[in-house]
Design a protein that fits this description.
By secondary structure, the chain is an alpha+beta fold. The chain has three domains: 135 residues, Acyl-CoA dehydrogenase/oxidase, N-terminal domain (Butyryl-Coa Dehydrogenase, subunit A, domain 1, Orthogonal Bundle), CATH 1.10.540.10; 114 residues, Beta Barrel (Butyryl-CoA Dehydrogenase, subunit A, domain 2), CATH 2.40.110; 143 residues, Up-down Bundle (Butyryl-CoA Dehydrogenase, subunit A, domain 3), CATH 1.20.140. Strands 1, 2, 3, 4, 5, 6, 7 and 8 form an eight-stranded mixed β-sheet that branches. α8 runs antiparallel to α9 and α10 runs antiparallel to α11.
Amino acid sequence: MVSTRAKSEANKTSSYSDRRLAFLTEAQKSWLEKAQRFADRVSLEDVVQSDQSNVFRRDLFELACKEGMGSLPFPSTYGGSDGDYLSFVVINEEFARRCVPIMSSLGVHVLCQEPVFRFGTDEQKSKYLPPSATGKYLAAFGLTEPGAGSDTAALACTAKKVGNDYILNGTKVFITSGASSDYFIVMAKLLDPSTSANEKSITAFIVEQDFPGFKIGQKFDMLGMRGYSTCELVFDDCKVPSENLLGAHGDGRKVALSSLAKGRVTIAAQCTGWAQGALDAVIRVLGKSHNSPAKNDRYAAAIGEMAVLIESARALTYQAAAAIDRGQGDVTLASMAKCQASDVAMKVSTDALTLLGIECSQPDYLLERIFRDAKAGQIYEGANQIQRMLIARDLLKS
């Protein structure tokens, strides 16, 4: 049972987190305020229930899209909000801080529109982007496989051109929003005699959920990141029309990376929000009493360290988002932001649970959920170990 006390306190906006306002334009502040109002309307009972029942809240997703968040960084030509990427980052940070149930699905939804906008034909843009902006369509990203995650060269899903169609075979796993989505951006190796079976053959497709040969496989009941319809996608001679080829043959890796570079900045924003949410809980609990243990130097030092780490993650994340808005998106900077913010989220949530003890591991405080979700942040959209290798390779190459 969610306590009245926890309910009233869990959704308070942290005065500390509002220091970010110094970095934002008036337009970006407006988007932050919109995200805060949206989060205020989501009850703590809904937040806890979404996690415990592992059910996706499509209704909340559609409401967010109606408020312009579902296609925020894209032009109004295709139904977007003409916003910038930093605005989208602050929305994700705020939604993560409050554990709003649609946070990750919203991030993936925008990630999937990116390759359609950049590589799609005019017909594809007109067909998929406006309904995505309104929430009529929900999108998911099909890259990860049982034997291939960060290593795109290991993809086993195949595509073969047969007449005017492509026939896809294979399996994708841990697909966020997969069981609830209307279309998917899917990467597969094209079986073409003119190309060898390596990364140069990876090709992107737009697959709709009612295409013949496509089905939803098992749904995952995971430790964290629950309530996002995470599932397996199965392609069994799945027939994809040639007009659903996204980009050129062999451009799949370029298509994927164009999205994932921005997606990693979104993950960094979410992780920063989780860390801030954990610190907010510590401040609420330990700061209430005049004789609070937080007055103890040991506690105070731990809280101060959390604040420093969160601000470092926020600064790096905002820097990466600002680079995107300048047209100077940097894959290495995105990887740095993702690594730093996810490691910070894991450390801060762990330290918060240690400081507050067993009572505050109850769902009411959101700490235990943040702790479980933060671990996923270190793994998905490119495990941190892989990200560090990519960072090092880029530095050594230059």
